[in-house]
C-alpha cells in the first residue's frame, strides 16, 4: 500500500500519476481538509474536490479548482440577488456540494461521503479526508503593524493571499478524528508514504497536525518520500514561495527539505534544482533528481513511476 498525502493542485497532479500506475487497492490518497469551510450552508472541501475532479478527469485544466466546461447560472443569479459572490460555485460543482450536504446532514462521516462521491465519479482508488471532524486552518497575519487572524478562505480567496503571514493554526486538529478506513490502513502494511508537492504550510502541515497521523508517521517502519513543491526557487502555483519569504525562509527546495526535517526520509527534487542535490544529501537524505513539472497526465504518471521506483530502492535498504 502506498499512502499519498495531498493538498489541492500539486497533490492532485501527483495523485493522478500514482493512480495511473498503481492498481486500485494499492493506493490511498489522504487529503487536507484544513481549507474546508462552511459557506451558504454547504461544507466546501476544496482540496478533496480538486483531487476527486482531477482523478475523474473532469477538473478545470487551468484554474486548479472547479470543473471543466462549467456553467455559472447559479452564481450569476446569486450576484443579481445580492448574495455573497466572493467564492465561485459553478453549476456542476454545486451538485457535489448539495449531495455532500445532504449526506452529512444524514449524519454520515465526511470519509463515507467522500468515498461515495468518488465512486459516483467512477474513481476506483481510495480518497480519504485526513479527519472526519472539522479542522480549520487559521492564518496569522500582520497588516499595517496589526496582528490578526483570518479563516483560510478569507485569506486565500477573498483577500487573494495579500496579507503578510506570520504563522498558522489548525483549529480542531488536536481532537481530530481520523476516518475508520484510514485507521485501518495505518494499522496495516504500508510500503511508503509519498508527500505530494503540496504547500508545506497550509496543505501538508494540517495533515501532520492530526495527532493519530503524526504518531503513526513518527513510529514508521516504511520510508517517507517527498516531492518538492518549489521548483527553481518559485512555487509552480499558489502562495508557497510568498509564505516562505514572509516566514523568513528563502524559497528553495533546500529550505523545504530543512523545514520538513526528520519527517521526510528521501527527497525528489526537480532537475532545475539539481545543483542542490549535494546540500540536501548532506542532510542525510537520499535525493532523486527528476522532471517534477506535471503539466499533463503523462508527465504525472512518469514522475509517479520514478517516485515508486525510488521508494522501492529505499525500502530495500531500510
Ligand atoms: P492547493 O491546496 O490547491 O494550493 O494545492 P497544493 O498545496 O496541493 O498545491 C500547491 C503547491 O503545488 C504549490 O506549492 C506548487 O508549487 C505545487 N505544484 C503544483 N503543480 C506542481 C507540479 O507540477 N510540480 C511540482 N513540483 N509542484 C507543483
What does this structure look like?
By secondary structure, the protein is α/β, with parallel strands linked by helices. The protein has a single domain (2-133, 174-317), classed as CofD-like domains (Rossmann fold). 41% of the residues lie in helices and 20% in strands. The chain contains 13 helices and 14 strands. It has helices spanning 9-21, 46-56, 73-80, 91-105, 110-120, 152-158, 180-187, 200-208, 211-218, 240-246, 253-260, 277-281, 297-317; strands at residues 2-6, 27-31, 37-39, 42-44, 126-129, 136-143, 146-151, 164-171, 192-195, 224-227, 230-231, 234-235, 266-270, 287-290. Strands 5-2-1-9-10-13-14 form a 7-stranded parallel β-sheet, sandwiched between helices. Strands 7-6-8 form a 3-stranded antiparallel β-sheet. Strands 3-4 form a two-stranded antiparallel sheet. Helix 12 links the parallel strand 13 (266-270) and strand 14. Helix 1 runs parallel beside helix 2 (46-56), helix 1 (9-21) crosses helix 13 (297-317) and helix 4 packs across helix 5 (110-120). The longest helix has 21 residues, at 297-317. The chain is globular. The two termini are 17 Å apart. Guanosine-5'-diphosphate is lined by residues 7-11, 13, 35, 47, 50, 64, 197-199, 203, 227-229, 231, 235-238, 240, 270, 292-294.
